[in-house]
Amino acid sequence: MLFHLRSLLNNAALRNGHHFVVRNFRSGQPLQNKVQLKGRDLLTLKDFTGEEIKYMLWLSADLKHRIKQKGEYLPLLQGKSLGMIFEKRSTRTRLSTETGFALLGGHPCFLTTQDIHLGVNESLMDTSRVLSGMTDAVLARVYKQADLDTLAKEASIPIVNGLSDMYHPIQILADYLTLQEHYGSLKGLTLSWIGDGNNILHSIMMSAAKFGMHLQAATPKGYEPDPSVAKLAEQYAKENGTSLLLTHNPLEAARGGNVLITDTWISMGQEEEKKKRLQDFQGYQITMKTAKAAAPDWTFLHCLPRKPEEVDDEVFYSPRSLVFPEAENRKWTIMAVMVSLLTDYSPQLQKPTF
């Protein structure tokens, strides 16, 4: 209840929202719908309604269609600048954001820990206020979610989570766009997560039910998702009439799943735990044996980089694997995030059926 009240209060304070038209299929008359994203932060998808997340996916599809397929030039971010804070190394997050922001006419500025040491060379509060005066938005890839929360609290510009210990929302947007393109609709899909109870799983748990998707997640004992996230995910599942299964049995999680999903077992900062983690995750590798328990139309996702112990080559390089379209869609979804938070642009492409 408190979350929903806070969400309503935040929405009431927003300005310059996006407008789009959806047809009433009985009368054919347009219905005015308002999605307000301009000026907001994207720290976790739990702060966004299903319609707001769908809007970002619609905008992603629109930009991909107009730029990649039609060859249009859309300088929607001309004159805008983006600060990119990276405490962790990156391939997809950095490349997708830099090239995407520049493709839309904006100027991205990459800042490593040697350039900006969060909370050490300068306080988080001071850093946030300085960047607010020099850039139009900040994407931060950090170790601690609390650092993002502080940046957002002190900033007067949008702060976007490029990855933290708790959430990775921009990755999940790319996953959903990929599944939307493949299946035509997200509603009713069963997602089967097999792996660590990490930031990727947390982001799925904060959003899947809002699309009418079911979630079955298997994690080893001691690697379960955060209890507060699990509690809220149960609430979302109840509100949206979906199912949520948390188990320690990989085959139970895979049973009937449309989408098999995993991630690295050893994230950056966990290298010292490698030997123990590899032992604890025995039996969690996704193979064709796992796939036999899944639905006939199963597909596979992995946010990359991938290690063979997480998924074998037969699955990873199979025609069922969507990992490389998934990686490309990181670009189109982060572009959509930036456009939605910084402009009043509305999609021209017909709204997909989610």
Protein architecture, described:
The chain is 40% helix and 16% strand. The chain starts with a helix and ends in a 12-residue tail after the last helix. Residues 1-32 have low confidence and may be disordered. Helix 2 crosses helix 6 and helix 4 (124-134) crosses helix 5. It folds into two domains: 41-61 and 76-167, Rossmann fold, CATH 3.40.50.1370; 169-326, Rossmann fold (3-Layer(aba) Sandwich), CATH 3.40.50.1370. It has helices spanning 2-13, 50-69, 92-103, 124-134, 145-154, 169-183, 199-205, 227-240, 250-254, 274-280, 288-292, 313-316, 323-342; strands at residues 18-23, 30-35, 81-86, 107-112, 137-141, 159-163, 190-194, 214-218, 244-247, 259-262, 299-302. With 354 residues, it is an alpha/beta fold. The longest helix is centred in the N-terminal third of the chain and has 20 residues, at 50-69. Helix 5 links the parallel strand 5 and strand 6. It contains 13 helices and eleven strands.
